Amino acid sequence: MIKLESKICLDSVKAAGSELKNFQNNNNFKNIEKWNKFEAGLVTQADLKSDEIIKKIIKMNSNHNILSEESRDDFSLSSDKFFCVDPLCGTVPYSNNLNSWGLTVSFFSDNKSVGAIGCPANNEYIHCDDENVYFNDEIFKPIASFPEMIDMTLCLEIEQGKNWSKLFKEELDWVKNFSYINSFASAVYPGFEIIKGNLPVMAIYKISLEHVGGLMSIGEKIGLKSTDGFGNDLKTDKLINEVPEWFIFGWPEVHEKLIKKINN
What we know:
Fructose-1,6-Bisphosphatase, Chain A, domain 1, globular
């Protein structure tokens, strides 16, 4: 059964990704309709169209519940089998006609999960079934090698300028262990690069499951770590009901070193 859900994840990400890419290529972004659903929570008409496409494909092929960034209120917290959807992860770069955005659909059932992530601007898609990971439909087994931590690039994602200011004053002393800090205003885009082995690790401040479900599912199959800031493995219910302060995702050796630096 989980292979069906894997196909649904990939099909919906590809269909919505194609629509998002076409929209971005053919529209004047100075005139795009956009608004904030909450402070620093930008939404555009493209987010909603992508969400519509994804939900339609899921509902045509499954009766399982759907947790979407754009419609969390419709989700039943009692669901033990469900899809997670972020129809446009990186709305800010997308609405500025940049390429550092993506989307993700994942499925969780008991102790199993599958998912798909896409970076349509780069024509790249990664998905997994319960056994393998696939990059543009070919079995994918990445090999990663990184320098010492001081020469690495850390991906750090924090929403809202006031959070950046507060965190740098109070608890981000550990970033001094890296020479380079990058931020993309997206979870999927840098997560995709981590899975490919191009980036070592990322830390995201207060992120919920719909944004990172695909990363967690795919990452698990190739040995990547998804934990909170203390190194505790994350369960899906924790990322729905009780969002951790930090989500740390990356290659095991680097991940372990970062956790130690954070908790020094």
